[in-house]
Amino acid sequence: MGRAFEFRKGRKMKRWSAMAKTFTRIGKDIVMAVKEGGPNPDANSRLRAVIQNAKAANMPKDNVERAIKNASNKDTANYKEILFEGYAPHGIAILIETASDNNNRTVANIRSYFNKCNGTMGTQGSVEFMFDHTCNFRIANNGLDAEELELELIDFGAEEVFEDEDGILIYAPFGSFGALQKELEHRGLEILSSGFERIPQITKELTEAQIADVEKLIEKIEEDDDVMNVYHTMKEE
């Protein structure tokens, strides 16, 4: 198996386990998708993907429809996606994806977390290059052959396809999202969820005490309502 498989295995069930946090995150995704492409999922591929993710997270349909309606209101605050970079203790690179309606607040909060946990907030581009920006799709496994599917989807950007207990996962570079989404829908394959991840090119192994130091910072960052995802170069089992 490749790096995407190992990355997914290491992160499984470790992050975003709180339902309330997941729903908040999806709600922001809905706002950004509607502001970008309108409230009709048939004409808005990004919104279509978010609705699939909401369903996978068991977000009530009423909540989704309400979020779409609210996002269509011109008075609804828009969220700007901002990337933060830095280092946790013991040389672990940290990459933070946020969606905020108040940049000053988010910057101040993220800086304070690094300061309080002996980390260092970096400048733009200081650690982003250490991660591969990928997209992924989870589709229903209705008797499909993952190896055969991988060969068929290579022309659409697929780099890694593998099975797990919840279906078949497809990984590709960030820029291949649209082409893959279109091809999967054209084939009539059921997309259960989709998204983007940043996979570290190299990971660093730490002692238990050092891991605790890094996790203290990561947990602090993840508690922030503006934070969508946190990625790092610490090796996870």
UniProtKB/TrEMBL annotation:
Keywords associated with the record: Cytoplasm, DNA-binding, Transcription, Transcription regulation
Main location: cytoplasm
Domain of life from the UniProt record: Bacteria
Domain TACO1/YebC-like N-terminal residues, every copy: 4-73
UniProt KW Transcription regulation keyword: yes
One example GO MF annotation: DNA binding
Annotated compartments: Cytoplasm
PANTHER family xref list: TRANSCRIPTIONAL REGULATORY PROTEIN YEBC-RELATED, TRANSLATIONAL ACTIVATOR OF CYTOCHROME C OXIDASE 1
Name of the protein described by the UniProt record: Probable transcriptional regulatory protein C4F50_03455
Organism: Flavobacterium hungaricum
